[in-house]
Amino acid sequence: xxxxxxxxxxxxxxxxxxxxxxxxxxxxxxxxxxxxxxxxxxxxxxxxxxxxxxxxxxxxxxxxxxxxxxxxxxxxxxxxxxxx
Length: 84
Prior knowledge:
Blueprint: E1 3-5, H1 9-19, E2 25-27, H2 32-36, E3 50-54, E4 60-65, H3 70-83
């Protein structure tokens, strides 16, 4: 699992450390990853909250989008990953 945020790498490192996250957070301050995955809000340029489950062959297996159900992202993706 890897998290991506539009924040700087330094800010992501502090955030991940403060929460003891078991996965890395990647900074995307220029929005290259955000644009590549098409998750920028139109006109605002901010990233939407989207979780992707990507298989070992680099194909997207599932997409979960919700701005408000933050805890549900991991739960939904983990259930799908267990089912295969």
